Amino acid sequence: MANNNPENQSARLPKNNNNDNSYITKSGSIHGDAPTRGPLTPLSGEDRRKAASLDLKINQQSTTGLPHGGKKFHEVFQWKQGRYADLPSTKISEMMKSNGLDNAPTQSLLSVVNGILDESFQRKNGEIPLRVACLLRKVVQEIERRISTQADHLRTQNNLFKIREEKYQSRIRVLEALAAADNGEETKPVANHTQQTQTENFKVEEKRKVENSKVEEKRKVENCKVEGKRKVEKPKVEEKRNVENPKVEEKMNVEKPKVEEKLNVENPKVEEKRNVEEVREDKSELEKETDKNIKEIASLKQELEMAKMMHEERCLEMEKENEGVKAALQARLKELESLLADSNNRVKELEITTESKCQKWNMKVNIYQSYMDSQFSTMRELRLTSDAIKQELVKTQKSYFEEFNQLQKKIKALADAAGNYREVLAENRKLFNELQDLKGNIRVFCRIRPFIPGQSGNKTIVDSIGDNGQLVISNPSKPGKEGNKTFKFNKVFGPTANQADVFSDIQPFIQSVVDGFNVCIFAYGQTGSGKTYTMTGPNNATEEEWGVNYRALNNLFKISQNRRTTIVYEVGVQMIEIYNDQVRDLLAAKAVPDASMHPVLSTSDVIDLIDVGFKNRTVSATAMNERSSRSHSIVTVHVRGKDLKSGNCLYGNLHLVDLAGSERVDRSEVTGDRLKEAQHINKSLSALGDVIFSLAQKGAHVPYRNSKLTQVLQSSLGGQAKTLMFVQLNPDAVSYTESLSTLKFAERVSGVELGAARSNKEGKDVRELMEQMASLKDTIAKKDEEIERLQVLKDLKNGYPGMDGEHHRTGSLSDRHSEAESQQSTDDEKSEISEAGLSVGAETEGSAEYTHSPGKSKIASKIRLLQKPPSPRSESPKGPPGIKKSLSSNSIKPPLTRTTSKTLK
Ligand SMILES: Nc1ncnc2c1ncn2[C@@H]1O[C@H](COP(=O)(O)OP(=O)(O)OP(=O)(O)O)[C@@H](O)[C@H]1O
């Protein structure tokens, strides 16, 4: 059937229903290459309108399209059947544009629809590419168009048939009426025939209706089957329809002229009968044909209905899918919108940041630019300066060479001067020690300790302390100036003086040790007066509280360090105690003179050693001082210095002596072992006094051997040594008697002049000489003793009976005790006599008792007569006369002794 019928062209307009799933680009063209995976943009109303107009254009084109479109369609779709998704969009759009669908057989179109749907089902995901969907819609529209065209055509045919039928009926009625009018009998059979025909017609009509309803039912029942068989049957039906439709039409077209011809040929009047029969036959035939056509139309309608239903179902499915896709796309769109918003924000932030960076950068650029400018200008200046400097340098070089030459000359002169430096140093040392000598080789410092917590009373005996070493003490039992006594020492340290103050005055002695002199520093005083505090410091002393021991060694190391370029020093330490006249090495279990020597390199070494020594020291409690030391402790430091240039050696030693308490035995309330300890202490202190006063008398014999203490200190007590005594005072009024006794002894010592000290510079030779001297001294001492004995015997013969030689051995310390005891008397004479008597008592091993006899007094008087004039330093007008007398007791020197003494000097 021709499709270029203008009537049918209007039917070609696309039905733009709402389920249209077409997708279109903004440019308006159908997007054949729409992505198959990604989401598609649903068409808006505007887009749909554009698509419709496009379809219209396509359809319009198709009406004037290519005559070979059918062939082309067949080529494309038959060949690609089953792979619609893979069809290139160009081909599809070409097909649609080129009017290919118009000429394609309906069966092919249906198979394309089925193929696309099958492929969609097979792919499971249900997605149909846009271009294929467009094609599908196009094909379906084509099918719809054809069906509707056919339906219209059939309706037209039917109407034509009905019109003809009515026409024939009216003719039949006319013929029947004519026949009835002419021959009543003849018309009867015609009328009967007509009635019969009408009855039959009615029956046929009813039968048709029944059959129609049956067919309808059957259709409903078989709908499901049809659905399954659709794929197979539909093409057949379509084919059949396509085959039959032309036949029917052909038949109708063929028969129509025949009928018309028959009708035209028959003569209404002559051939009416014949015509009636023919008409009857034609009518029945036509009726049959009509029934048949109606049936066909019905079946076609059914098929159309089915196809519509399927199409609608498919449209619904696609609509659902579309909604799903739409929802997903909307979600995606929202997501993308939020991403876009984020991106926009970020872009804004970045823009802001970039802008601020740009500004900063510009600022930096400006700064750098200005900096560069300034640098360039500075560089220019520098260049100018550099040139100036170069010129200056040349000038300076010249002057430098001149100065250098002069300097060389000066250096030469300095080198010559440096050669004399050592000599100058030696001279300095010599001058220093000469100064010390001028100050006196035995010096006495008095230190008054403060009241300590827990001490009862707090009534002090100290009246005043003068700057010049003057100390005034007051007698608590004699208030007022009458009871005051004045003493003069090299220095008096009051209770507020600290350890550093005290050491500052000792330091020169330490320097003497390093210069090769022997030095002895000892602390003397009653128990608890602060001897250990001064020599060592309190328990667990801090550096500030360090006593003389630590400070002396610390200073010694400092001096040796300062001199390391010229003299190398070695330092060794010994530590002993003398307890009950027994010597004990506190650092090792060996006896003197082989007390262990411990080399030390630093103050910390010394601290460690002294700590060990103190742990070993014998300490026992007494009523006077709970921490009373009942032994003498002696730290001896040996220093050997080697002059790096001359190779000569210097030897010096330092004795640091913390003497045991000097309290009176009767006051310390001790008995038994403690009494024995006290007696030993008193004896050794007496021996020390004897040695000092013997030295003061410059006697040939110095009784070093009378105690272990003096033996040990021998090298540091004598003409070659420097001696410093700390007189420690307890300011408590309770200890007045002890303090007075101590002060008197100290003042006497202070008055002793030992003569110039001598350095041990000569090394080994000096030691040997010293040893020789010691033996000579011993020999002289023995001779002295003999002379004394002879003298005494001579005196006895001259009228002083009752005195034996033993009693002539006097001890200064005994004097001290006698002095202390004589405080009860104000009579100086009496005191002197008693002192002389006590010295005898002192010899009787600790007995404090003595018998006053006129014989002893006479001896004392004789001794006084023999006393040599006191040295200026010992002349203390305010000092007690007992001191002078005591000294006089040791001043009896035979001419040999004096000579020897001078010789030794
Ligand atoms: N200058 C001082 N400043 C403060 N406290 C002191 C001073 N001198 C001594 N002391 C204190 O007085 C007490 C007695 O001192 P220390 O033990 O030194 O006396 P000592 O004469 O050595 O006694 P002993 O003969 O029994 O050994 C100690 O507690 C000591 O710390």
Automatic annotation (TrEMBL):
Biological process annotations from GO: microtubule-based movement
UniProt feature, compositional bias: Polar residues: 1-28, 886-905
Residue ranges, annotated region (Disordered): 1-46, 797-905
GO function terms (MF aspect): ATP binding; microtubule binding; microtubule motor activity
Protein family (similarity comment): Belongs to the TRAFAC class myosin-kinesin ATPase superfamily. Kinesin family. KIN-14 subfamily.
PANTHER family: KINESIN-LIKE PROTEIN KIN-14P (PTHR47972:SF50), KINESIN-LIKE PROTEIN KLP-3 (PTHR47972)
Protein name: Kinesin motor domain-containing protein
Organism: Hibiscus trionum
